[in-house]
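#onboarding

Welcome to the new folks! Below is a worked example of what a typical request in this channel looks like: someone posts a single protein sequence, and someone else replies with the predicted structure as tokens. Don't worry about understanding the tokens yet, we'll cover that in week two.

Example request:
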Amino acid sequence: MDMIIACSALGIVAGILAGMLGIGGGVVIVPALVMILSAQDFPSESIVITAVATSLCTIIFTSISAARAQIKRQAVDWTIFRLWAPAVVAGSFLSGFIAARLPAAVLEVGIALFLLVTSIIMLSRWVPDPSRAMPGNSGTTGLGLFSGTLSGLAGIGGGNVMVPLMVFFNVPIQRAVATSSTLGFPLALVGTLGYAISGWDESVTPWSLGYIYLPAVALIATFTVLLAPVGVSLSHRIPAPTLKRCFGGLLLMVAGKMLFDALSHL
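Example response:
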């Protein structure tokens, strides 16, 4: 019963944040699932990778809901989507096999440090050079591969990587959020497949598919799908500087908590 309540509440919060910030909700889901699974007596060596894989699976459903709402508002930059999608998908698929070979503590610390750096950038008063534009095809492919791999390793929908990168190249934040939400679907779908295949012989429970814990997926995804459109509506009502600070503040809190937990286990 405790797990049902915790996962349902997590889905509500993650759904609103996914729609509002284009982050897929994984930045909240992963650390929360680490705590939930720890309370369920999961094997310690499997908790982090199970949380990452399960989070990525829920984002399949969240991103569909958020992307539909953004597409209706005609907020997606389809040029960036077409250029990034193939590389994002390739990187996301590879991430499941990379994560399976990393120690749990290394994976958790790496995710926390990445989120910490990103949060500092988003909270600062840094403004990109107004003359800076998106790179050419090879540069764009590299950015997409980097985004997909890192997002898959962290169990996030890509917004934590892709939104700051797009803002760096002067894409307006509301447009970056919308494009990130849309790219989140192929990223999460292929990344989930990678975690299912790489963990096929490592299933912790009868309710697991590879590294993916299906009961948590069902509970979280139900509420994220229902609440993501609410977050999308909020994202178009909040001024861009405020949205940027919300994004950075959320990342800072989550990164601090993950880093503290990871270092306390070393």
